[in-house]
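Bit of a strange request maybe. I'm writing a small parser for structure token strings and I need a real example to test against, not something I typed by hand. Could someone generate the tokens for this chain?
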Amino acid sequence: MIKRIDKDISRFQKIVRGKVKKNLKKYITRGELIGKKGKDFVSIPIDQVNIPRFRFSSKKSGGVGQGEGSVGTPIGKGDSQDGAGGAGDAAGKHILEVDVPLDELAAMLGEELELPNIEPKGQKNISSKKDKYTGISDSGPESLKHFKRTYKRALKRQIMAQAYNQKNPIIIPIKEDKRYRTWRTTIQPESIALIIYMMDVSGSMGDEQKEIVRTQSFWVDTWLNHQYENIETRYVIHDAIAREVDRDTFYHTRESGGTIISSAYKLTAKIIEERYNPSEWNIYLFHFSDGDNWGEIDTDECVNVLQEKLLPNINLFCYGQVESPYGSGQFIRDLEDHLTDEEKMVLSEIPDKESIYKSIKEFLGKGK
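Reply from user aminoacidic:
Good idea to test on real output. This should exercise your parser:
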């Protein structure tokens, strides 16, 4: 019975995975999953899943009314069509919410978008100690006693001593029979990553634009957490000046006034210089804006900071330009002109939510 249940669970999980993967593009372009994100799982609504099984036909199989009884005794409501209205016989559409591990969700994202695995840098400088069971010893703590080895040793001893009784098979281990697990402490390299999100919060960036940023950031986080053991995330907002904030402030702040993008790049460079050694950290920068910047002078300053302080020290710089009716959209074209051959830079235009799917693939498709 247990094996049958396990098979049903396995089949159910495969069906759920297939349904989620089939509709992954729809989930990516919606923000509803973000609010349901737990520590390790996310709840996803899917159509009701039924495990296929055989059912016996009701035809020619008798039914209620067999056996003794008086002719004409009412049994229940029949198939008469008398009367108006009534309950229908068609199955309704049911929605089932299933918990999907974020790691599994990331794996599906990688398969769907054909994302390459990331090759981290700097692991050799950071390591952790892990205990691994490697063998068996004749001494050790009782908590590590190996029952199977102890039992076999005692059984062999009693058989050799002709003390084993098949009719009364009692095995009593003695001190010499006991065996214990042994372990070895190994030093394993760890891969750690830093994500810095930057966003323009000037008056031209509205709620719709911020929702696009929020949704795309969720999937970027999901993929990078799948690739790295330890991740730290920092948030920088800017209009004419930049400041570091917490996650909630990042997604809900709206300012008025102009935009000086270089202020965000300079603050980001300072955060990296003071707190994160580029030789040890895998650093990812994501900047979202509507492409409106304060003149060519500041654009030149942005290019200088990128070339001299940021790009040499990071894995990847991704700029996502969110379309806004108030933004000029010029900045992405300026970056294309000045940094055409820069391999660590990815530029993506995100006119609406439907474009998030394509933008994620552009951001993460290099495997940096």
